[in-house]
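Hi team,

Below is the intake form for Ribose-5-phosphate isomerase A from Lysobacter korlensis. Please confirm the fields before the structure is written into the shared record.

FORM ID: S-0412
PROTEIN: Ribose-5-phosphate isomerase A
ORGANISM: Lysobacter korlensis
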Amino acid sequence: MTEAKRQAAEKAIEYVEDGMIVGVGTGSTVAYFIDALGRIGDRIKGAVSSSEQSTQRLRALGIEVLDLNSTGPLSLYVDGADECDPHKRLIKGGGAALTREKIIAEASEKFVCIVDPAKQVDVLGRFPLPVEVIPMARSLVARELLAITRAQPVWRQDAEGRGVVTDNGNAILDVHGLAITDPVALEQAINQIPGVVSVGLFARRPADVVIVGGEPPRVL
Ligand SMILES: O=C(CO)[C@H](O)[C@H](O)COP(=O)(O)O
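The structure came back. Fields below:
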């Protein structure tokens, strides 16, 4: 799937216009996009980044990383996804950057999502749904998620068995075993739980364009 990720990322460069400030997501597909952006770095004004990981890669290529508070609305956001349904609704957050990703998506006029074909599903939920939570609310939110979804939330751990800490200092719960029939309603319901920072369902604000890597890439 590596080649498909690269193909989708390269195609997304066609949406970048001279003088733009580009919103940039997180993940292995986006890493290819950042590398491609580096080749035209002198044509853009800079980027707004969704994670420390992407910030480092952007800066290493000489692309200025700007604060969303000083840029105003963005014309373009490019990011990957863990799942994408036929309505361009997404599950995101496999890289734990869902909150900043959601903020930038909301601030952007056009959200171009770049995926490999394995990310396409008919019904969202095979990929565990990430929820970022304030650490003290972790158990409370887990109980409420179980009550709402009847599916099992699991506290995300790193390779050493420690709880993952997001760039915002929070924890991640991954909800396993969902088949999400009404993504907008579930997104709203999870957002209502005290202690939830954000949920990795992008249904209220889906992608505008999905590029599926392949030869040639497909633009949906
Ligand atoms: O949501 C994300 C990070 O929080 C990523 O976009 C998602 O996990 C896809 O990653 P990759 O491109 O590595 O498959």
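SUMMARY LINE: The longest helix spans residues 28-39.

Thanks, M.
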